[in-house]
Amino acid sequence: MSEVNGTPAVGKQCSVQDLLTWKDPVKTGKVFGGLILTLLVFKTVNLFNVFFHLAYLGLLISAAAEYAGRLVTGTGFVTKYKPQTHSHATRFNNEVLPRIASFNEKLEEEVKKILFAHDIETTLKGAALSYILYKVTSYFSLYALITTAVVLTFTLPAVYVKNKKEIDAAVAQYSKIAREKATEFTNTASKQAQPYVDSLVEKSGPLGTFIKKNLPTRTAGSTIGTEKEASTASASGASKTADAPSTASTSGASKFPEVPTSSLDKSTIEDFVDEASSKIPEAH
Questions:
Q1: Which of 45, 178, 208, 249 has the fewest CB atoms found within 10 Å of its own CB?
Q2: How far apart are CA 30 and CA 38, in angstroms?
Q3: Structural domains in the chain (count)
C-alpha cells in the first residue's frame, strides 16, 4: 500500500538528502570515504589488468579440478562441491531493468525538450552548461572532474542547509541584477542595431519594405498570450462571418457570367434553324 502512495520514493529521497547533508556523520563518512578510496584505487591500480590476471588463474584452476575429479571419481570436484547459487540475472531483470527503462524514458523526454527548444530558456541554459563543460574539460582530466564532483556533492548540500537563508537571499538579489543587466544590454543592442536594420531595409528595396511592414516586432513579454488571443479573435470573427448573410459579390475567376434577361429575337432563331438544317444533308 505504501508503494502506491509513493512512500518508498519519498523515503528514498529523504535518505539521499540526509546522506548528503551529513545528518548521520558515521553513515555519510563511510559512503564518502568508500567513494574516495575507490577513486584512489582506480587512479593508482590498473584494475583491468588485475581482473584478467585473476580470471585466467581462476578458470585454469576450475578446469583442472573438474578434470581431476572426473578422472579419479567420475564426477568433477567443481560439479560436486560447488555452492548452491541463485539467478542474479532474474533479480536484475525484475528489479533493476524496470527502473532503468523508466529513467531512460524520462531522460529521453527531457533531452528532446532541450534539443528541440520546447522551452527556449532551458535550451539556452543547456547551451551555456555545454560551453562551460567544454572549457572545463579542456583544462582538467576526467578523473579530476569526477573527484571534484564527488567532493562537492558531499560538501555543498551541507553548507547550503546551514546557510539557507543567506544563500537564498544572495541568489535572489544577484538573479534580479543579472536579469536587469540582460534587459539593459538587449535594449542597448537593439537601439544600436536599428540604424543598420533600417539601412538594410532601404537597400533591399520593395522586399525589405514588405518584410518590415508585414512581420510583427515582438518582445519576450509580448509573445505571451498573444497567439491564444489572436486565435480566439479569428475564431469569433469566422463564426460571425459564417452567421452573417453573404451579400458581397465575388470577382475574378469565381464570378459566374450573368444570364441575359431579354429574350432572343424570333427571326434570329429561325435563321439559326434553317442554317443547321441545310448543313445536315452535307454531313451525310
A1: 249
A2: 12
A3: 1
